[in-house]
Structures are given as C-alpha cells and as structure tokens.
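User: Quick one: structure for sequence A, then sequence B.

Assistant: Sequence A:
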Amino acid sequence: MDRTQVNKLIFDGRLYRASKTLYSELVYLTIPGLLDELDSIMLTYKSMVRCIAEGVKDEKQAEVLSYLKQRMLALSDKIYREERKQQSSDLYYTTIRVNEGRLPSYEIFTLDAIEGGPSSLPTEERERYDRLLTILFDRVWVSEKLSAEMVKKIATSSEYLRKAIVPAITMGLGYYWDFEKLRLC
C-alpha cells in the first residue's frame, strides 16, 4: 500500500477513491474490526454526499468531513502498520509480533520484577535483571500507546531504569507518535 498516496487522497477529500485502495488492502489482512470501521466511515460519507446531492444545507458538514478524514487517516495508519507487521523482517515489526504473544500485563510484571538498580546484584540475578530489562525495553519501544499504569510505574521507577527506557521511547517515537511516551523523557 502506498500510504502517502492514500493519505493524499484523504487530505484532498477524495474519500471514496481512498476507500477503494483501503478495501483492496483489507482483503489480505485478517484483522477483526478494520473492515467494519471502514464500512462505518464510508456509510457516513455516502449519506453526507447523498444529502449534498439532494441540496440539504448543513452547517456541520465541514466538521463531519474533517472527522471522517481523521478517522480514515487513523485507519490508513492501522492498515499500514498491520501490513508491515505481517510482511516485514524489520526488527521493529518482528519485535511487535513477539510482544503480541505476551500477556498485556506483562510489562507491569516486568517493571515490578526489576524495580531498583542492578549494581549490587549477584551474577545470576544480574542476568535475569538484564533479560527482563530487555523485554521491557522492547515492549516500550514497539507499544502504540502506554497505559496510564505503565506511565506511572516508569515515572516513579529508579533513575537507572528510566535512563534505560529513554532510548526505547525515542526509538518508538520514530515509528509511532505517542504523547504519553514523550512526556516521560
């Protein structure tokens, strides 16, 4: 999918053409809810176009169109991300696939397990600490959005842990923008 071209169509208000491209991409993705979301956007858009064609004046028309564009841009990003995740051998997307296999609360468990610093740990415990820190790093790096609980845990964790997580946040921002990640830096 040429995301730049699809997003240009959306910005230009050519939602019907953009939707055709998105529908063709969704044929290959088996992600529940994305097709329903696109159907919902297009149903609203078609209703709006029909009303315009019938001469109905609506002062909220520009707001509705802007809202539909925002939803379609977000959907375009989701589809692009899912495609990349399924087809890419890039480390970022491989890490996403690995992390999706873990329980959602795994990062909180990991944070609780490595609270404090590694300086005084014996070798065995230090190796476990480093493995858990790597898992946490990967989880923060590829997360689309950090939970409020996760943000609070990181903000109140040791300085060593926060410094270890900053590169994960920075790298994650390169792939996906999330204001909660930025606030932690």
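Sequence B:
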Amino acid sequence: MMKEERPKPTRAELLNGRSAAGVIRYARLNEGPEGGYTDEDLFIEIQAAGPDGMVTLLRTVQSPLLRTGAGRTLVGREVRVRHTTLDPHYLEDVLVEQWPAEVAEALKPFRPRGRGAFGYRVWSLISGLGVVVGCGGIMLLVPSLCVLIATLIFGPQMVDNFPAWLQPVVVFPASVVAVPLGFWVHFACGYRAETTRAKIEGRTS
C-alpha cells in the first residue's frame, strides 16, 4: 500500500512554528520536461532542540535565485528558518525567514547606471515591443484567416466596407510575418540587453 504524501504546512502554521538556524548543505538542479533545468532545490540542515537533546533535521526549499546553478553559491551559508515538527525527514516543513545578504542583493530590481545604461534600456524596450508584435500576430492570425476563407467562398462583397489596411488579404500575410518576426526580435534584443547588463554589472562589481 502506497504511503500518502504528507501535506506541506501552511504559511500560518510555519509562522507559528519553531525558529532555528540552518545551514545550506547542498543544491540540486531539477531537470525540466524538455531536458532543461527549471529550478533548483536547496537542502538545509537544522539543529533543533528535542525532548532528548539536539536533533538534526533536513529540509528543502526552492532556490530564490533564478540563474541556473546559482543556488550552489549559497552552499555553506547560514539561514534563519521556521519549522513545525521535529520529524527529520519532513522535507517541506520549512519557511526561510532570513536569507544570506547576497540573496537580497541579487533580488533587487536592476537599475542600470553609467556607460551602457541607455543601450540596455533601448534593447529591453525593443525586446518588449517584439513580444507585443508577436502576440498581436497570433491574435490576428486565425480571425483574418477565417475572414479570408469566407471571402473566397462567399465573394469579396463581405469585406467591401472594410478599410484597405483591414482587408484580410493584407491582415493575414502581415500576421503570418509578425509572429516569427516579433518573437525573433524579442529573443535577439533580449540577448543583447542581457549581455549589456552583464557588462554593466561587471564594471560596477
């Protein structure tokens, strides 16, 4: 008979739980469905006072750092946590109250300054516009195709009142081009923005 998975304590339960210091012992990368790494788990060792003396608890949380492999930089660092039980194998029974200082620093919004800041903002803006163009193309693709097919079946009189720029023979090809072009612009300019950001951070670190 399969053992039922123990539910994770609620945030309210954890906030009312025991406070303790923990040390991040190791990090594990989780493989995504297509072979890419999607997130990273940190394993925290906690020394807690039990009825018969000190006990060692193992807990796990998802790394707050989004860059792949960044969780490894936190191994050996101390964190402040809360937990509700002394079960050494209840991995999800943890709430991190205080991360190391570099985590708070890494999670701060990036505000570019100095040489390269203007270029970073421009590339980021164009990357965002690429998403708008790509998504707009997707939204127009199916309706314009349906209208185009209906026009071919029932005759052009269906769209006689449409302005020239809204004719399906114009909108459909434009949307077909907009989808790949918009997302290509998004990824290409996003890459340039990230490389520019890395250079700015390299000069300011």
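The two ends are 55 Å apart (CA to CA). The chain has a mean pLDDT of 84.

User: Thanks, that's what I needed.
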